[in-house]
Structure formats: structure tokens, C-alpha cells
Design goal:
This protein has helices at residues 20-26, 51-77. It is mainly α and 82 residues long. The longest helix is centred in the last third of the chain and has 27 residues, at 51-77.
């Protein structure tokens, strides 16, 4: 993912690199567990069968953190008591 022939500013972190139409095209060059992000796991390519579950689990964890601590942060920044 640091191939300068594929990615502009390949040596930098670009947060929105994979958004939009150009970003969808670049997903073919984003490798995840033995294969491109756009590929599907099979026995032949040995790609992780749980790759979609890993992403979903990470999303659930972030959502749980916001659900659990959002109220505490609101009270902290708006002068409330715990």
C-alpha cells in the first residue's frame, strides 16, 4: 500500500484515500490477509474466512465505546457530576 505507481502520496497517511469512485478502484490494491480487500475467501487463495467479521466486530466495539462513555464525556465537558 505504499506503491508510488498506484497511490498518490504513498508514504503519507491519507484518511480519505479509499472514499469515492477513485477510492473504490484503489481497494483492489488494498491487501487484507493474503488477498485484495475486494476478493472473496476461498480454499485456493487462503484468504481469511473471517475478514468481514473482523471489520464488523471492530465497528461494534467502537459503537459500544461511544454508547458506554458518550454520556460521561458530555457531563465532563459540560460541568455535570458523575
Amino acid at each position: 500500500m505504499s506503491d508510488q505507481t498506484v497511490f498518490d502520496r504513498a508514504d503519507e497517511f491519507v484518511a480519505d484515500r479509499f472514499f469515492g469512485e477513485e477510492g473504490k478502484r484503489l481497494l483492489n490494491y488494498l491487501y487484507w490477509s493474503n488477498g485484495p480487500e475486494t476478493g472473496n475467501p476461498t480454499v485456493e487463495n487462503k484468504q481469511c474466512a473471517a475478514k468481514d467479521h473482523v471489520v464488523a466486530t471492530a465497528c461494534f466495539m467502537v459503537a459500544e465505546i461511544f454508547r458506554r462513555y458518550d454520556d460521561h464525556l458530555y457531563r465532563l465537558f459540560h460541568g455535570g457530576n458523575f
